[in-house]
């Protein structure tokens, strides 16, 4: 079995993290790297071609920007409830506000859909981005995250948590590098693994960690299912704003609207969310970027959106096919 193959003799992988067992292997502060560096064989898949039409950039300094309302819920596409009453639609942040983004789509989310998206976004905020939000001074709904410490995972396969002073906490931005999604490659829709991690050392200094008798630590755990839901949600909201409701048949919105309780195995999250290996990453000063366009694969043209969080730090672009 090679990296990239679907699971056959195990439960699907949902949670991943990377452990630095030797602090000397940390990238220098302010530098980009990838991990793990292993010679294991992996699949290389044919992949589709993305042609961008329009890019929306979000600067490092948060600025509120409101896109016009669509008149119905961007997820379930309803205007009325089962009794014919007009739905009360609330504004929806395109990129979660906790990531320092101020872009909103006015009156675009019903109560039921907002409850689901808020649930997975809150989960990702707490489990994956807490130290990064604090170190990069990202302003969320309540301003800058006020925390005096975070648990540091010093375990490997099994988590073990310690607390050290915030001034010495090793903050590393970690994002998953994915295979191409099955909607625009030959990869199985039941595949569940990522390729590797893209890492940026914000402030992790080995000499400070050794003061606490630490020789290694692990990144924050990534829930791949909810992470893909968050990326797909960004793509659906902005893509629907750009293309409109009537130009495509949605293919990923049901995934966004589905509740995946923590701890439950799941597959299918890489059906429409993935990376393109052949497409170049361009340097940018934008904190985040969203690009709408078309994905072409095997004679089919699909509405697609590129989502790049922490673009100025060299993090991966994720390509989401939102409709046909």
Low-confidence runs (pLDDT<50, min 5 residues)?
none
Instruction: Count every beta strand, where a strand is a DSSP E run of 2 or more residues.
Output: 19
- Main-sheet strand order equals 4-17-18-19-16
Radius of gyration: 20 Å
End-to-end distance, in Å?
Answer: 33 Å
Give the % helix: 10-25%
Number of helices, where a helix is a run of at least 4 consecutive DSSP H or I residues:
5
Main sheet characteristics: 5 strands, antiparallel
**Average pLDDT score:** 92
Report on this model:
The chain is an alpha+beta fold and 324 residues long. It has one domain. It has helices spanning 111-128, 130-135, 206-210, 224-243, 253-257, and strands at residues 15-16, 19-20, 32-35, 49-58, 65-67, 90-93, 103-109, 139-140, 143-144, 151-153, 161-163, 172-177, 196-201, 217-218, 222-223, 273-274, 288-297, 300-308, 318-323. It has a five-stranded antiparallel beta sheet. Strands 3-13-12 form a three-stranded antiparallel beta sheet, with no helix packed on it. A hairpin with a 2-residue loop joins strand 8 and strand 9. Helix 1 (111-128) packs across helix 4. The longest helix has 20 residues, at 224-243. It starts with 14 loop residues before the first strand and ends with a strand.
């Amino acid at each position: 079995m090679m990296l990239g193959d679907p699971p056959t003799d195990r439960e699907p992988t949902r949670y991943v993290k990377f452990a630095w067992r030797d602090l000397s292997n940390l990238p220098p502060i302010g530098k980009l790297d990838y991990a793990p560096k292993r010679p294991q064989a992996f699949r290389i898949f044919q992949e589709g071609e993305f042609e961008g039409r329009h890019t929306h950039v979000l600067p490092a300094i948060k600025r509120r920007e409101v896109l016009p309302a669509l008149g119905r819920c961007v997820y379930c596409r309803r205007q009325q409830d089962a009794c014919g009453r007009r739905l009360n639609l609330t504004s929806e942040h395109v990129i979660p506000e906790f990531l320092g983004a101020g872009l909103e789509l006015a009156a675009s989310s019903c109560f039921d859909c907002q409850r689901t998206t808020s649930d997975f976004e809150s989960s990702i905020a707490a489990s994956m981005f807490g130290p990064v939000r604090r170190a990069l001074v990202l302003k969320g709904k309540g301003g800058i995250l006020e925390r005096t410490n975070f648990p540091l995972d010093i375990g490997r396969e099994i988590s073990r948590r310690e607390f050290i002073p915030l001034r010495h906490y090793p903050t590393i931005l970690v994002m998953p590098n994915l295979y191409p999604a099955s909607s625009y490659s030959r990869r199985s829709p039941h595949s569940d693994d990522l390729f590797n991690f893209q890492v940026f050392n914000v402030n992790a200094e080995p000499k400070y960690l050794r003061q606490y008798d630490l020789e290694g630590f692990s990144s924050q755990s990534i829930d791949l299912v909810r992470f893909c839901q968050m990326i797909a949600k960004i793509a659906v909201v902005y893509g629907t704003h750009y293309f409109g409701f009537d130009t495509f048949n949605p293919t990923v919105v049901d995934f966004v609207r589905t509740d995946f309780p923590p701890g439950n195995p799941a597959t299918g999250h890489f059906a429409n969310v993935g990376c393109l290996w052949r497409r170049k990453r361009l340097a940018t000063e934008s904190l985040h970027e969203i690009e709408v366009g078309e994905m072409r694969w095997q004679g089919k043209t699909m509405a697609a959106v590129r989502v790049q969080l922490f673009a100025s730090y060299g993090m991966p672009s994720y390509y989401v096919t939102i409709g046909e």
